[in-house]
Amino acid sequence: MKILAINPGSTSTKVALFEGDVCLLSRNVAHDAARLAEFASVSDQLPYRKQTIEALLAEEGADLSGLAAVVGRGGGLLPMEGGTYEVDERLLRDARIGANGVAHPAQLGSQLADEFAREHGVRAFVVNPPDVDELQEVARITGIRGVYRNVHLHALNLKETAIRHAASLGRPYEECNFVVCHIGGGVSVSAHRKGKMVDGFDIVGGEGPMAPTRCGSVAVADVAVYARERGIDALAALCHRSGGFVDLAGTSDAIELTRRAEEGDEACRLAWDAMIYQIGKCIGAMAAVLEGEVDGILLGGGMAYSDDLVARLRRACGWIAPVTAYPGEFEMEAMAAGAERVLAGREEARRYTGEPVWQPPACFAG
């Protein structure tokens, strides 16, 4: 069966066509940044993005006959359990407005999938969007009444990496415990217990290790001082745009950073060393969440191509469980695989409710 996968990014959209496990077409459609800037909201970009995708498919001579489903990168949704979700009006409504309060091109994934699916008379899905929240209750509690933790992680790649590694062990994901990391432009570290992502770090909110553009966890008192001196907007930008390597060394490019470190740039060396150190600490924290019952530590994302990073994390954490690197990402494959599992009857499609996955306990009310 043929499945079209669509993954919108900040200045481009990835498009892939699969037939079974075979990728027939995989392209990255570049968008004019100036053109994108003309739109008042992310959702306003929908017609423009669709036209550029249609032009690419026509240029490549993509044969969409026999198309069984279209799957888009989810985004803009309220917290939800992991899985493959059927795109319906409730899901589309929240994606259009960005119900989670985070304006991101991923909001367009479900909308684009719906547009193409309607044209071809097939089903549309989203798979493990960034809004997946499967935290266990104790992981949600902070020391501030009325403030509770949730997570924003690279859920799609984290879960697909775990599913693939479990299969390599000859076991289902639902029977395994893993600490899974995505180490790229953002760094996600998560604990997976028996098929659920029971804890992790809110990388949009500034938790976890630093990353190329993210500051990572910082003491609240220091954050308060920074906000008084620089302002709330500057502080917020550190969480997802101007922190990490950018603030410490003036670049978000890990390859450039490591090259400069090798050439003697002390700021770059310290930034690189500190990030790896922090990732190791966070892996240890997630191993504690799993009470030491860890079947594997998995490293994905673009920076997992670094032999130095993998070797250091293996040295730091290999005593906990075997460390396995899966460089790059499986996002397009993961999207197609999620749709295929539903179409083949191995998984039931979920319905997005838009309802909170968790309610604060009554004992903390008032």
UniProtKB/TrEMBL annotation:
Keywords: ATP-binding, Cytoplasm, Kinase, Nucleotide-binding, Transferase. Coiled coil: none annotated. Its main location: cytoplasm. It catalyses: butanoate + ATP = butanoyl phosphate + ADP. The keyword Kinase applies. Its EC number is 2.7.2.7. PROSITE patterns: ACETATE_KINASE_1, ACETATE_KINASE_2. It is found in: Cytoplasm. Pfam families: Acetate_kinase (PF00871). Signal peptide: none annotated. InterPro entries: Aliphatic_acid_kin_short-chain (IPR000890), Aliphatic_acid_kinase_CS (IPR023865), ATPase_NBD (IPR043129), Butyrate_kin (IPR011245). It is an enzyme of class 2 (transferase). One of its GO terms (molecular function) is acetate kinase activity. GO terms for biological process: acetate metabolic process. GO terms for cellular component: cytoplasm. HAMAP family: Butyrate_kinase. Belongs to the acetokinase family. This is Probable butyrate kinase. It comes from Adlercreutzia equolifaciens subsp. celatus DSM 18785. The gene is buk.
